[in-house]
Fold these 4 entries.
Entry 1:
Amino acid sequence: MVTNTQIQTFGTRFQQMRLTRGSLCVGIDPHPELLEAWDLPVTGAGVWDFSMRVIDALGDTCGFFKPQSALYEEYGSSGISALTATLRAIKDVGALSIIDVKRGDIGSTMSAYARAYLGDGPLGADAMTVSPFLGFESLRPAFDMAKNNGRGVFVLTLTSNPESAALQSAIIQDKTVSPEGCTVAAGIMSRVGRENAADGEHAKLGNIGMVIGATVSERLEGLEGLLETSNGPILVPGFGVQGGTSSDISQLFGTSVDRVVVSSSRGILRAGPDQRSLQNSFKNNLEALKLILMKQNSV
């Protein structure tokens, strides 16, 4: 019987994967226009074929894959079958899966989401994305499941979509962060840091990470201290098509870049369906990212 103390934590696996395969995550986002560009049917079968081709091309070199659940769900049962096959294939190539579901709910419903995505069932992944905007503590079932099963959770914190700024930068009366209150994003960062504090005491990376967009530089100003003490993985979408660049990553995260994994989807996938072209696109993006991160770490 495997006990909790014998399960390797997600934070440990995350850092090991970063060191062996690099900090670039491929978002498996089977948008209808990509399926058409790859001459695939816009169906669950097309999504299955698309996903397998991506993993076949990049599974030996990419350490992180992030399938976007909604782009599978829209095809009903055939899409869900494709998603379960995708998660199995990611595991088979030795990479880590981050299922992008952005779930956030309360009570027994959140517990069911946690069991679905962080358990050992057909939709179980290495980590899931969650939304804290029903209250950070509402995510407790996911945090507990992640700890017990050696999985990870990425909490939406500062996202790239322009509509998010008004909410995530709003001031709340959270005196645990500051007597004058703090922004919603600062409150999330502070709570993530508390969740990961015990791991930090043992010089380990925690299991609770954050999603911070690659284009949020202005909104991150003044939060550098909370970012540094959060002691969790950082997932950074928005690299490539959405406007984020390698230099943005370096400037945004400073000394925290050693906890960052950058996600790119269409910036890599539009090079397909040719396998060699996909591999070259991934390699070029990874090398550009490595160069910037190496420069930052040498400062």
Entry 2:
Amino acid sequence: MIDKSLKSSIVVIGLIFLSNFLLNILAVLLAGVLSLKVSVYLFLFTFISSLLAVTVLGGFFTGLSASLLRLSRLLKLNNLTHPLLLRLSAEAPGTYHHSILVADLSSKAAKVIGADSLLCRVASYFHDIGKLKNPALFVENSKNEQNNQDLDLLENAKFIKNHVEDGIRLAKDAHLPQTIINLIAQHHGTSLCSYFYDLAKSKGTEGIRKADFRYKGPKPQTKEAAIVMLADALEAKARVKDNSSSIKDLVEETFADKINDGQLNESTLSERELFKLKQSFIKTLESMAHQRIEYTVNHKY
């Protein structure tokens, strides 16, 4: 996949070389015949165009080189053989399966609005690697929903939320690209860890504050980060559904929750793009058509 900066660099390079060619043709036309005068004109215009090329292309070649390096790294990470992903598949198979589905959802959605689908796919593979610290704590890796019930609800929420910071540390230690690390940090934004917050409220726990049950953030700063956030939430919620008849409502509710909570405010997604994303998610979720295990309506994500 070629990103926008790479495309821009290629276009500008083409325009510079075209202008160089046209300047040389103009020199010949002005001189009229091949002579010393023509040689002077050719030298002059070529020199001027070369100066322009050096001046303009200096920045673009830097951007082109960075884009090619970034593309190469993402393609290498796209083959699922990275040690962290191999660990995830062995130690947290439920999380690994979830991540593969999130990658499919997010990459297809990104293509619909012209966002970076490769980045969404690769970031989705790695977005939950922080769960490697304690895989059994997360419901997709355990058949026992009552894990850690001996801990208080705030402590439970803290352990769940910590998978983001644990993931950032693992990603940095593995020298993953900063773009991937950013999406790991932003894939929950400042969302509420609603399962434990609602449970604390229902039990009448004293002194509970909503802020204590929220992820640290930041909120998604790019369209790609917002897409991964939405795909992550949708796959987790869809897992508790026993049929596809409510997929459309599930998508609408999830989008409304994120929008009303302000999670997409900094992502630059337009209303038209949000509409297209909804349609893509509905289509992909319905096409998955795999048997899902119903854990609990109030998921622990």
Entry 3:
Amino acid sequence: MSHLLLDCTLNRRKNTIAAQARFDLPGITALFGPNGCGKTTLLRMIAGLEPATSGTIALNENKWQTGKKSTPTHKRNIGFVFQDARLFEHLTIADNLKFAEKRAHRSGPDIHRHDVITAFALAELLDKKPATLSGGERQRVAIARALVSRPQLLLMDEPLSALDIKRRAVIMGFIETIPEKFGIPILYVTHAIDEVARLADNIVLMDSGHIIAHGPVEETLARLDLPPLTGRFEAGTIITGTVGQTEPQFSLTTIHLGNQSLTIPHLDLPVGQQIRLRIRARDVALATKEPTGISIRNILRATVSEIMPEPDTAFAEIRLDVENQSLRSRITRASLHDLELQPGKPVLALIKSIAMDRRLLATAAKNNINHM
């Protein structure tokens, strides 16, 4: 497994990026944080696009930055996908790919242009010019071109930010196959938590120019000691489940979580497929007794594992263990007091079926690339 070592600094007039971390790169690693926290700048530092960078940057045994000495970008064996596609407008799509292939890194993975064309469904676009393509098509070509260059690491800077949700979902379906199909890890910049939930294996959290945490995405987002970089309104966790049967009469799909299950609005996914669900802390209510006569359909047996009251507010954050996965709940401190909650206490977690965002999952299942 590849790993990235960062101990680098970039001083600017308005802000400073100072990143110190060493982390593995399994599959897709999300570089996540609020707008303006330095994600894109750090990605550019890793790519060698910020000449004033100092310190250490290394991928595995390859030292790209030592002090002020920097390996040129074209020798770093990386692929870079920007927010805009940056295709060569005077070349056809086929020639864009051939251009990258001619400059492919000899030490990179064994990737062939025709395999990439097939994987990204580009055959019908090869004779076209970039100006005739839709936004989604342009980004597919941009990703394919980066892969044809045979990089050891693929850097992606918010590649879906200009697309609508339907096109985002489809492009994510292509992106998530890259590590397994082509053997290339991805460092993926985003401030969209739904993209993290769909794509990321690991996450690196940034705030104010610094890396504040990194690790497996489910574990890291469940931590109560980290600031809510998504905002309190969006803070929550990601759980993994298996698609079960759909009840046609009420258009509800069952998601199995170990020995328990959830029901959510209909998903057009095959039975047995693993999926991730993002559940916001604010959407999880707690009870100590089985409720009756309520509309909430999802009632999960859980155990309180951690409590973090917020003395300056009315609220408290609770971390729960459910089938060896973590949920977060945000309740009032008054409820915390009334329910006499403490670590180790069994509780019931109540989650509305409509609380779980299924748009990206449902659209991606169709993998419809037409009119992108």
Entry 4:
Amino acid sequence: MKFHTEILTWSTLIQLLLIIAIAIVLRWLLRKGVNLVVSAMLRTAKKRDEAMGLGRMLPKTSERQTQRTKTVGGLLSNLGVAIILTVAILAGFSTIGVKIGPILASAGIVGVALAFGAQSLVKDFLSGLFIIIEDQYGVGDTVNIDELGGVVEEVGLRTTRIRDFNGVAWYLRNGEILKVGNISQGWATSFTDISVHADEDPDEVTRVLNMVLDELAAAYPDSILEQPKVLGVGDITGGTMTFQVWTKCVAGTQFEVIRAMRQMAKTAFAEARIRGAF
């Protein structure tokens, strides 16, 4: 009876209410801080894309950046709320007379045991968190991870699932990923060889190719970032004269653009009676 009387004193109730009020204020400040961080990350990502000359693909990438940043913000917010709630509960126990020393000691022992037993798991989770925060890759990206190439199907905090070009699904532990090449991120430049007969007039071939590149740029305005250029004759071997063409495209779209360019060049050469390479 004495214990209950001590718990219900006005002083104890005021301290408990104060703990609750502080926890609510801290939670509100945490949410505001996370929102500010999320907004700052979105602004930084937008400025980075504009500096890289990717202004035309901003609508395409902004949705992914927003989703990624909100996911990170949600993780940080939930982690902060869990810490605040734990501290508030421990403070409440201490206020009503419950000794929290043994609880903390037991929790410390369990934490040390878990840390030794789950080192690789913690490493995987931390690596996964940084992969998401840094936007190293996302679902749908074509990547080369170590010696494996394929399309990302799922990015989790512990593992990443990759579908290689043979259709095999690979599950990679995030903590074991050391090197990542993202083919779908940012922009990509390509140098394409176009071959014709060695006896053709180089100036005429260049003129026709420039016409083709103008049509190509008009046909793919959302993919081509800069006007493609004919760099000139790159090689003459036997009966073949090779011209080199430079293109700069949104990453991942360059393959379609190059295929279209080759087809358009073939048609234009036929109309101009320019012979192809034998």
